[in-house]
Write a structure and sequence with these properties.
The protein is α+β, with helices and mostly antiparallel strands and about 90 residues long. About 35% of the residues lie in helices and about 15% in strands.
Amino acid sequence: MRITSKRPATRARLATIDQLRETLLHTYLDPVPTRRALKEWFKRANLSSLKANPAARRGGGTVWYSVAQVERLLRQRSGMAGFGESEVAR
């Protein structure tokens, strides 16, 4: 897994996992981990998430993550410990 230090200026405050994979994570990681691996990683890192419909407990709503928190997490975990080869998308 390759980690780069180049990053674009981000202005978004919230993003879905798919949006993060297409923009921010693509800048930091090569290859970008799978959606499932990212979801588990964000959960283990205690990143706050928001749902469009907070009443929907399972499914039924888009989950949004703070872009600033994800960026901070990526910078802190420069070695990206915690990702196994099986969790990384090829």
